[in-house]
Amino acid sequence: GLGLTNKKADNFGEWYSEVVVNGEMIEYYDISGCYILRPWSMAIWEIMQAFFDPEIKKMKIKNCYFPVFVSSTVLEKEKDHIEGFAPEVAWVTRSGKSELEIPIAIRPTSETVMYPYYSKWIRGHRDLPLKLNQWCNVVRWEFSNPTPFIRSREFLWQEGHTAFATKEEADTEVLEILELYRRIYEEYLAVPVIKGKKSELEKFAGGLYTTSVEAFIPNTGRGIQGATSHCLGQNFAKMFDINYENEKGERAMVWQNSWAYSTRTIGVMVMVHGDDKGLVLPPKVASVQVIVIPVPYKDADTQGILDACSETVNALLEAGIRAESDSRDNYSPGWKYSQWEMKGVPLRIEIGPKDLANKQVRAVRRDSGAKIDIANAGLVEEIKKLLDNIQQNLFDVAKQKRDECIQVIHTWEEFIEALNQKKMILAPWADEKEVEEDVKARTKGETGAAKTLCSPFDQPELPEGTICFASGKPAKKWSYWGRSY
Ligand SMILES: O=C1CCCN[C@@H]1CCCn1cnc2cc(F)c(F)cc2c1=O
Ligand SMILES: [Mg+2]
């Protein structure tokens, strides 16, 4: 019957895959690491896209579409950028019965697909800035444990690829995009994130610097990169000859950025807000915000109740609230309550004989379970307020839980202790690659090594003489550390 067999606090991994399946977001596919995105999750992707796409259009970024296939010559053009990733690249080696002359890769990301054409299109300073984005899928044949939305062999994302005449313009855009990613998480998914800069070891090797929004999953004590915005510097301009004649008639290389968020966002939201009754959807991203359920009673005025349900739905729809009624006659109200709770619908409205008589409805919140009787007069306004309150409450609760997981430390002992307590660790460190490599080596274990998540833009005080928790060298900055996805 209905109901989850796994508890979130007991076995998180099994709970998560049960919730995304029972909530009808995901269907498992017969190829490992691949998942079907059912309408219940696709609708969330579309709602986020409906926010992000107009925002980048305001920034004069244009959408385009490049081929999914990459020739091996161009993919391998960038040796050091690719070398670590080579095992993840999926290849087409034949069509029908005939082997291909040259194998063709399926895009794992599109730098090498796009930049030869950036080189061709960018000739003079009037061709700048060139700012393109594409909404597409990418394929990375990952081997570590596949997880719906979080780590899959194919996923949907947007990838932005921009080119500027000056570093200043690039630096500015990196942060403008990162702010949009923060808004996706905090204003839509109700998930708190931390903005910061990746370490030299964790950044995109092909770029100059990487910024990210970092989320945290309290149940597993793991950080997760929520979205990423890189400044590529002039590295790819050098590799792909993307240069132009500047206003002084000199040859100059462009400054580039690339940035992405993916369907991973949905998985983070499920992990943070889901509970033992199933999904809990923030109203801003719920394709159904209010489900109206008739509660007929014996021979009580059933038609009157059904009419009240459709009138309520229509009033809510007219006010721009995404409402539906569930008037299926082959399920009991109780069964419907559980099913819509499993699907995480933020608000349920029940209409029974008593409600009909009193010209009111009974609203039930999915986040707190609170039951509220609301008069039909002024119903729409009350429901709007309730949905806003649910959105804010989900964020506040998630932020409070995440903040409780943050532990400031100064010594190695404190670091290990906090790691074992599944904390998100804030520590002063020397900001040296070897130090991070050493921490990874010293914390390797079956639950994965600790690594830097990001160095927050919002730096705490670093008093003179503070030492690095791992090396004893003078500390240069604070960074968040932890195990991660
Ligand atoms: O993260 C982004 C934002 C959107 C555009 N790309 C950048 C960097 C992607 C880094 N990356 C990430 N994963 C990869 C996997 C591969 F198999 C491969 F060949 C290359 C890569 C790879 O370059
Ligand atoms: Mg990867």
Summary of the model, kept short:
The protein has helices at 12-22, 39-58, 72-75, 79-83, 111-121, 167-188, 235-240, 264-273, 302-318, 333-342, 353-357, 379-404, 412-420, 433-443; strands spanning 26-28, 35-37, 62-63, 69-71, 90-95, 98-106, 130-139, 154-164, 194-197, 209-217, 222-233, 243-245, 251-253, 255-262, 290-294, 323-325, 347-351, 360-365, 371-375, 406-408, 424-429, 451-456, 477-484. By secondary structure, it is of the alpha+beta class.
Provide key terms for this protein.
485 residues, alpha+beta, five-stranded mixed beta barrel, five-stranded mixed β-sheet, 14 helices, 27% strand, binds the ligand O=C1CCCN[C@@H]1CCCn1cnc2cc(F)c(F)cc2c1=O, binds magnesium ion
| Major beta-sheet overview | 5 strands, mixed, barrel
Radius of gyration: 25 Å
Give every kind of bound small molecule, once each: the ligand O=C1CCCN[C@@H]1CCCn1cnc2cc(F)c(F)cc2c1=O, magnesium ion
> Terminal Cα separation, in Å?
32 Å
Portion of residues within helices? 25-40%
What characteristic shape results from the CA principal axes? globular
Instruction: Report low-confidence residues grouped into runs of 5 or more.
Output: none
How would you sum up this structure, described in words?
This protein is α+β, with helices and mostly antiparallel strands. It is built from 14 helices and 23 strands. It has helices at 12-22, 39-58, 72-75, 79-83, 111-121, 167-188, 235-240, 264-273, 302-318, 333-342, 353-357, 379-404, 412-420, 433-443, and strands at residues 26-28, 35-37, 62-63, 69-71, 90-95, 98-106, 130-139, 154-164, 194-197, 209-217, 222-233, 243-245, 251-253, 255-262, 290-294, 323-325, 347-351, 360-365, 371-375, 406-408, 424-429, 451-456, 477-484. The strands form five sheets. Strands 9-10-11-23-22 form a five-stranded mixed beta barrel. It has a five-stranded mixed beta sheet with strand order 16-15-17-18-19, sandwiched between helices. It starts with 11 loop residues before the first helix and ends with a strand. The structure holds the ligand O=C1CCCN[C@@H]1CCCn1cnc2cc(F)c(F)cc2c1=O and magnesium ion (MG). The ligand O=C1CCCN[C@@H]1CCCn1cnc2cc(F)c(F)cc2c1=O is lined by residues 81-82, 85, 88-89, 108-109, 111, 140, 159, 204, 228, 230, 258-260.
